[in-house]
Amino acid sequence: MTKTYRAPTLWDRIRADYFSSRLNTALTLTFGAFVIWVLWNLANWGLIHAVWSAENRDLCGHGGEGACWAVIDARWRLIMFGLYPFEEQWRSAIACCALVLVGILSCVPWFWNARRISILWVAGFATFYVLMRGGVFGLTPVFEQNWGGLSLTLFIFAAVSLLGMPLAIVFALLRRSELPWIARTMGVIIDTIRSLPLLSIMFTFAIVLPFVLPGWMIGDKLYRVIVGYALFFACYQAEIIRGGMQALPAGQEEAAKALGMSYVHRIAYIVLPQAFRNALPPTINQFVITFKETSLVVIIGFFEILASGHAAFGTSEWNFAHVEVYAFVALIYFVFVFALSRYGAYLERRTAIAAR
Question: Where is each ABC transmembrane type-1 domain found (predicted)?
Answer without folding.
Answer: 150-344
